[in-house]
UniProtKB/TrEMBL annotation:
PANTHER family: DISULFIDE-BOND OXIDOREDUCTASE YGHU (PTHR44051:SF22), GLUTATHIONE S-TRANSFERASE-RELATED (PTHR44051)
Organism: Bordetella genomosp. 4
Protein name: Glutathione S-transferase
All copies of domain GST C-terminal, residue ranges: 85-207
UniProt keywords, alphabetically: Transferase
PROSITE patterns xrefs: GST_CTER, GST_NTER
Length: 207
């Protein structure tokens, strides 16, 4: 059985969506970031960086933090959501890595500086708006050529990016001018596992 430690937030949704897509049995442990539960010793023992999501798998004894590692683990465990063909497989890993190193942190910083920073810093807001637009343009260009980031098939790369495009929509970061990315987002948002994944744990962010 997999235990998932998470909150209603973009990085957490990647794990809930993947677990729902794969129909793996799992237990959700709600780590309330607002209440500082991610800084408690019991949680820091699972992730010393104090961030959700975390999974433990009692079948293998493996504990993982970092959403990309979790997505790769779940894909490898089931043989699904990561193409077998080497070209598509490495496309999926490349776009997953692009998400973890570029898209996720950039959108996250934009959310911080536009919505949560105690002081409005125009240069920081402008910088992360510009960087977000660049990321959206890169994703849009890829999706103008293929239905999914890895190519023809939906994969963990799409799940990773969707975690943040879902939040971008909620906080009104408009990407409608990126028409291929917008259509991809709508298509993924309609998947039953995705609809459920973004509601976990309750209460859902922005719902
Ligand atoms: N690179 C990490 C980022 C995890 C992360 O930042 N999670 C956020 C919630 S979306 C968190 O736990 N924030 C708590 C904090 O910043 O103190 C991943 O992909 O898992």
């Amino acid at each position: 059985m997999i235990d998932l430690y998470t909150d209603s937030s973009p990085n957490g949704f990647k794990a809930t969506i993947a677990l729902e897509e794969l129909a793996l049995p799992y237990r959700v442990h709600h780590v309330r970031i607002n209440a500082g539960e991610h800084r408690q010793p019991a949680f820091l023992a699972l992730n010393p960086h104090g961030r959700i999501p975390v999974i433990t798998d009692d079948e293998t004894g493996i504990t993982l933090f970092e959403s990309a590692a979790i997505l790769l683990y779940l894909a490898e465990k089931t043989g699904r959501l990561l193409p077998q063909d080497p070209v598509a497989r490495w496309e999926a890993i490349k776009w997953l890595q692009f998400h973890s190193s570029s898209a996720g942190p950039i959108i996250g910083q934009r959310v911080h500086f536009e919505l949560f920073a105690p002081e409005k810093i125009p240069a920081a807001i402008e910088r992360f708006r510009h960087l977000t637009e660049t990321v959206f343009a890169v994703i849009d260009s890829r999706l103008s050529q293929h239905p999914y980031l890895a190519g023809e098939d939906y994969s963990i790369a799409d799940i990773a990016h969707f975690g943040w495009t879902h939040i971008a929509r909620i906080v009104d970061f408009d990407f409608s001018q990126h028409t291929h990315m917008s259509a991809w987002h709508e298509r993924i948002a309609q998947r039953p596992a995705v609809r459920k994944g973004v509601t976990l744990p309750e209460p859902a962010t922005g719902a």
